[in-house]
Specification:
mainly alpha; transmembrane helix; membrane
Length: 69
């Protein structure tokens, strides 16, 4: 009984989360107009020239990881 309730709860939460992501994407594409990338473009503009954080070791590991993909 408890396992059934848990499975149904997980499915409802998962479906609700996916519906939000899917509908957000559809809404941005249909109603976004000229401002589809406004938020990300402004974030990129503000962050230009910032120092990379995390140290050399982290950057090297990330670069090697990305090259393997």
């Amino acid at each position: 009984m408890f396992i059934d309730f848990t499975i149904v709860a997980i499915l409802i939460i998962g479906i609700t989360a996916l519906m939000g992501v899917i509908l957000n994407g559809i809404g941005e594409n249909i109603f976004g107009g000229q401002k589809k990338r406004l938020h990300t473009a402004m974030s990129e503009h503000i962050q230009t020239g910032w120092k990379t954080v995390g140290g050399k070791k982290l950057r090297d590991n990330l670069g090697a990881f990305l090259k393997t993909k």
